[in-house]
Amino acid sequence: MKENLSPIVLDIAYDIAGDVKKFQEMFSDREVYNLQADDAPSDLSCIRYALVWKPRPDLYSRMPDLEVIFSVGAGVDHILNQGNVPDLPIVRFVDPTLTNRMSEWVCLQCLMHLRMQKHYERSQNQILWAQEHHPQACELRVGIMGLGELGQDAAKKLDAIGFQVAGWSRSKKEISGIDTYDADGLEAFLSRTEILVGLLPSTPDTAGIFNRSLFEKLVQNTPIGGPVFVNAGRGKSQVETDIISCLEDGVLGGISLDVFDVEPLPEDSPLWAMPNAYLTPHTAAESDSTAMARYVSGQINRYETGQVLENVVDRSLGY
Ligand code: NDP
Ligand code: OXD
User: Fold this and answer.
1) Could you tell me which residues are beta bridge partners of residue 243?
2) 257: Cβ below 6 Å to ligand 1?
3) Counting ligands in written order, which one lies closest to the CA of residue 186?
4) CB-count exposure of residue 39 (10 Å: 0-12, 13-18, 19+)
5) How far is CA 190 from CA 181, 185, 248, 312, in A?
6) What is the pTM of this model?
7) Ligand 2 site, CB within 6 A
8) pLDDT tens string 1-46
């Protein structure tokens, strides 16, 4: 073992060949074991740190000395939903590389709906010169559900572009230039919102929250034709049959979805063919391997020098 420091185990259920290399470079003084690799060690009894996405069911029972669980993502539903999670700190990934990417995605989607990008894609395909009038961003009210690391940054950037921005979260926030609502203010928040952005974690409380009854409470006559729903939080928060029927009967005028109830989105999902719909394959904000390796290294360093770990999940809240 290098330097006699505890190794790190990576259990990430997707192709991480590149990621492992980045980790090995970052942890030159520690072993990094990749459980997806053919030569993965079978004895994990001395491991104190694990970085996981959807951990295999027997992982924790094989690591009696585990002390900290690191999440590859900002969300931790994939860890908590696996069951049998030991009562250890779970540190989620919070980093500007992820936050910036998410804000880019959110701003892009809001701007595409503002500037009727679907109309121009269609007219370009038909070789048509079809000009439209566009409101300015300052004429549109965007509302963000979830004002955490990602929601707050997106709110500030949408505000800088000129949108009228409000945010809703369980506990009230104070953000300069942004109207904020707490859990009790949901109805008031929805009744002023024309583009609704979801940046909520998946928890029992948020399951199915984006449904017809909620969409019907959004401002229906908007400067862009109808309210728009943008979601990059988690698919379990949205009722996809309601989204489809709301697009069909005009309760929603458009959507941008990066997350889905089932991923990959099944080929026969009607969402693929919906008008005024932008779909991306859960790529709004990827976890950058180099940044993640730096982050995990920094947190382990804090832990081993007696400082508190950052971004530890509140197990009672589920995020
Ligand atoms: P945070 O934990 O920082 O923020 C979560 C926000 O949601 C908080 O404002 C919290 O309120 C609010 N919230 C949670 N539950 C409720 C509820 N029941 N009612 C009202 N508000 C609630 O998370 P992040 O901002 O870092 O990430 C948000 C989510 O984005 C992740 O959990 C993940 O699912 C998703 N994500 C998606 C990615 C993608 O590529 N599509 C990439 C990264 C993350 P309060 O502030 O009061 O606690
Ligand atoms: C995350 C994600 O939670 O990629 O970070 O969805």
Assistant:
1) none
2) no
3) 1
4) exposed
5) 10, 9, 21, 30
6) 0.96
7) 73-75, 287
8) 565 688 889 888 665 666 788 888 888 888 899 888 888 899 999 9
